[in-house]
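tool_call predict_complex ligand=nicotinamide-adenine-dinucleotide
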Amino acid sequence: MPREVKVAIVGCGGIASAHAERLRKIEGVTLKAFVDIDESRAKSFVERFGGKHYNTVESLLKNESIDAIYVTTPPFARGEEIIAIEKGIATFFEKPVALTMEKAKEILSVVRKSGIINSVGYMWRYLDTSSIAKEEIRKNGPTALVIGQYIDPFWFPPKHWWLYKDKGGGQVVEQSTHVFDLARYLEGDVSWVYAEIDNLIAKNFIYQDMTSEDSSAVVLRFKSKAIGVIVSSCVSQNTFSGTFLRFITREAVVEHFCHAKTLRIYGNNRIQEIRSNVDPYFEEDKVFIEAVRTGDINNIKSDFEDATKTLGVTIAANEAARTGRAISVE
Ligand SMILES: NC(=O)c1ccc[n+]([C@@H]2O[C@H](COP(=O)([O-])OP(=O)(O)OC[C@H]3O[C@@H](n4cnc5c(N)ncnc54)[C@H](O)[C@@H]3O)[C@@H](O)[C@H]2O)c1
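tool_result ok
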């Protein structure tokens, strides 16, 4: 029997449920506690998964001895986990790591100082097709163009935090951040960005008080010199989800379909298609728990420091759209 890892989850919503379902399948994991400002949500998790419920991280730490926390609160609520990090508790953060670079850097300095095991929920990095894509791009490069897309139908109920930019961060910071992160993982860091980001339809036809954007196009220049463009939209209700990254390299075109978990490699007049059976959420949870157990961080594919760079790219895109200028990435 592997050593027990005692876990608490802070923020009992949609993605917390996805992690809890997977964590309970990992041998040796005990779901000890659930924290939510909304007591009914924390209680409903206790009914499903056992353990105790609390309404603050402070009360959790006073009453429980835990090895790891999952921070699955919305972006505007980040930072409350700092007192747990200071105590040396391993932390899994959902993306984006914060709403602003200032908050991300504040948390990052505590993460560095405490030296905790940490991981961030950019789950697509854990697809086996992502590792194959990385190798194919390296082998067939250099890359000239990176073309990305995040199209998802509008599903948000009235007053959902995502609708408000000061709560969720807006489209590129919260939603298509996954595509920006995977582009960084596969092609490397970004030097500067230019962007057009707007709310073209949803504000007029769905919710008038919405402040997050519904459509965007971001041009990126990678440090590798490759040119990129990532387009996103969530306007078309009852249509389809389509997320991909396409790399045009010297010897091959590599197409990585993210939600569809399919990789297509075009080269030498042949098309090779590879499908993934991996559940990337389960993989990232297993890797994080194993790192907590052993102290070995080698299999963690996204840590807080790296994920802060992805936040930097998306914040720079917002700044570019606001000012109408190209913005260099921190
Ligand atoms: N990796 C992914 O595929 C993925 C998918 C969905 C969401 N997410 C991310 O996960 C985070 C949560 O998203 P969600 O869709 O699960 O949100 P949600 O609204 O479903 O759940 C958030 C929960 O946090 C609670 N909460 C809010 N403030 C709190 C606080 N100060 N202390 C404790 N609890 C608090 C809310 O009451 C709610 O129960 C977001 O950062 C989002 O971007 C990631």
